[in-house]
Predict the 3D structure of the following.
Amino acid sequence: MSSTPSDALIRISDVKHAYRTDAGPLPVLDGFSVEVPEGAFTAVVGPSGCGKSTLTRLIAGLLFPDEGDVILHGEKVTSPRNTVGMAFQNPVLLEWRTILDNVCLPLEIVPNDLSRKQRNDRGYELLAMVGLQGFEDKKPSELSGGMRQRASLCRALAHRPDVLILDEPFGALDAFTREDLWQIMHELRHNEAFTCLLITHDLRESVFLADQVVVMSGRPAKTQYVLDVPFGRERVLDDLYTPEATQMLLDLRHQIQVAQGRPLEELEHEPGDPEPGAGEPGS
Amino acid sequence: MSSKQRFATPIIALVIFALLWEFLVWINDWPNYVMASPSDLGPAFYKFRWLFLEFGWDTLWRTVAGLMLAIAFGVVVGMIMGFSRTMREALYPLLVGFNAIPKATVVPVVALLLVGQHNLNTVLLAFMISFFPITVSISIGLSTLEPEYRDILLSLGASRLTIFRKIALPKTLPEFFGALKVAVTLAFIGTNLMEIVEPHGRGLGHLFDSGKISADYPLMFAVLIALAVMGIGLYYVVVILEKIFAGWAERQES
């Protein structure tokens, strides 16, 4: 999936960012670039502490780069934009609100002329999409971790954002719940129009969900490697067990090792082979 | 536990407590100037029933007024400290230092400062002794708000005020009510300290003092019991308010 700069909805070019600390500036991003075409799904992976969360805050307009540009829709980000939706590892649902009221929260803040009923209908629609129908009036404490995370995804999408930023949203879930949520992510993508940037440390997740996987180098992070995932939009978990998926995962694994500054132990695998097997997309 | 049981349990505990007390006085054969027994209290209450009502009301409204002041002050200062790290660092030592001063020593200072203003200085003492837990709970509640909560709303373009109203305030309520329960009992101590140490001729503290002067020991005990009953009453008012406004924080019994 190649893209010219003009059709990229999220364009981050040569971004540099440092945190001020008592011991002097701590650079976290240095020369990081990524482009996400409209409607595409990009995953960003990298060793821990490499500035992945800084990246989400830059796109959300909660933080501004020291150098370089963060551009959404061809416009430089200078303040938070309410066309962005966010979800984190911690679902941060408001415990005193029902699930429905939690999901509808963005509609209370983003200016719109929806009636109370229309807002609620939007909430019902999203909750049904993620399989939470019947839980609208429950409190977050009555739901399991996976269900809370689904509600959190619904909230991120309530105001129909065109950009969805996911910061390790499935990181705290058990393996099977996580796989359920991957499937739900595909369904949401099928029903809602958004361009997604997913931060994750799970390589299988990145390959299963994304059209493009970007590997960040160790801190200060720059773009180290970009992998295009040749699968189509319709994916099943079995696709992850095909030889081409395995080859992609191995490539990513090696790139992470490089990012971590560790030597590759299996040199016979020809590290850094940039092109994964050019087979047909899995079905 | 059924609601009938929940109501009966504390009452049964009270009756057992009174019986044990009566038994202890009886077995030791204590005269009532050593320890009055529960059976002495009835006559004492009856004898001074109008004074109990009048002075009880004095003590109650002064305590509640002091509490209101403590809530207003505690919420405002707690918000300032919760949102500004600099203010937190600046104000904490002052607050802790003030709280460490025994309030009995403050009584003459306040009494001299506001000489003659009996109601005002009693209310002030109730306030001084009870604002600390409220201030600390609000400031901690606000300063420990997970950044993701803030980010969710900030990224949508919400104002600081909206974030406070929609998230910070409701999220702090359980801590606030926890502190208020402590503050209620403290405020009674403050009111009575002023009423006893600097007698103004009003309030249950004064009634206690006159019991002491006239060697009416059952009266002194009756005052203590009246204070305890008022404390329990006000405490449950807070519990009810907590259920209404922060009931979501209560874990379901399983």
